[in-house]
Amino acid sequence: MNSSISDKQVLEGIYIPPQPGLIEQLERCGADLDKIADVISIDPGVSAAIIKIVNSPVFGLVNKIGSIPQAVVMLGVDRVTSILKTLLLRKSMSDITSRLDMQLFWQSSVSVACVASTICRQLNLSMADEAYTLGLFHNCGVPVMAARYSNYQQVMEFAYSREDGRITSEEFANFGVHHAAAGYRIARVWNLPKVLCLAVKNHHSVARVLDDSSIESPTLKTLLCVLKMAEHIVNLPEKLAQSDVDFEWEKISPRVLEFSGLSEYDFEDLEDAVHYTLNGDY
Q1: Which one in 11, 120, 151, 254 has a CA-CA gap of 20 to 30 Å to 51?
Q2: pTM of the entire predicted model
């Protein structure tokens, strides 16, 4: 892609949901926990959804949370805000018309998020919250692509069936843009942290990022490795594209495991630990 072409030009005609006013209100609250709780509590549906999420096994809380103020105090502003953004993103896309099974799409995103966060805890990585947010957001470009292109589902299924694992190459060949680029734009509009925006942008370019010595951020590389492990564990290609083989994982897994300091046997143990921790509920 020509680097002189802006994101806006590349994504012209593709719906990018704007950041809701609720997020802007939160940002104006600063570090005032009471004000933050009051703003979130304005929307009962969102509040109930946040409480349900934070009480799920993935957060591993000993005592259940019963209110938004308690959630903010227990989990912190950043974590609650990240959960809120993903809920609002889903809500903002609820009216998108496409042939994509949106319920299945969001279920698969939640599964990846839960497993990614659990992987971080199993490996003692201090980025479980970031991994959870990335799991929810990494494929957010898929629904907007499906809404723009009527044959997107078919192209995506063919992309996941490519034995070379080059998923975004297939999309780019058909549309001149791919879901990782669309997702990157959404992540930026929604003010996700820079490292998460870059992870969304590069989540199908993991080998290149790992091999790029000019990228000094170990956080970006680690998050991408965790994401790819999570996608494979939940069998995302089958869920999204009816592909019974994870060709992308077959291609990049040696580099992912090497960077993560894991052998194939270690990864099998990790899969078992994730399954046990989440009771297979993913």
Answers
A1: 120
A2: 0.85
Give the number of other CB atoms < 10 A from CB of residue 163.
9
Q: Where are the alpha helices (DSSP H) in the chain?
A: 7-10, 21-28, 33-41, 44-54, 68-75, 77-92, 102-122, 128-137, 141-148, 152-160, 167-175, 179-189, 194-201, 206-211, 218-233, 236-241, 247-260, 264-277
> In the CATH hierarchy, which top-level class contains the domain 100-282?
mainly alpha
pLDDT digits (tens, 9 = 90+) for 195-237: 999 999 999 999 999 999 888 779 999 999 999 999 999 999 8
Q: How large is the greatest C-alpha to C-alpha distance in the chain, in angstroms?
A: 52
Angle formed at CA 137 by CA 156 and CA 253, multiple of 5 degrees:
65
Chain length of the chain: 282
Of 185, 106, 112, which Cα lies nearest the Cα of 148?
185
Q: Are 222 and 257 in contact (CB under 8 A)?
A: no
Distance of alpha carbon 36 from its chain centroid, rounded?
A: 24
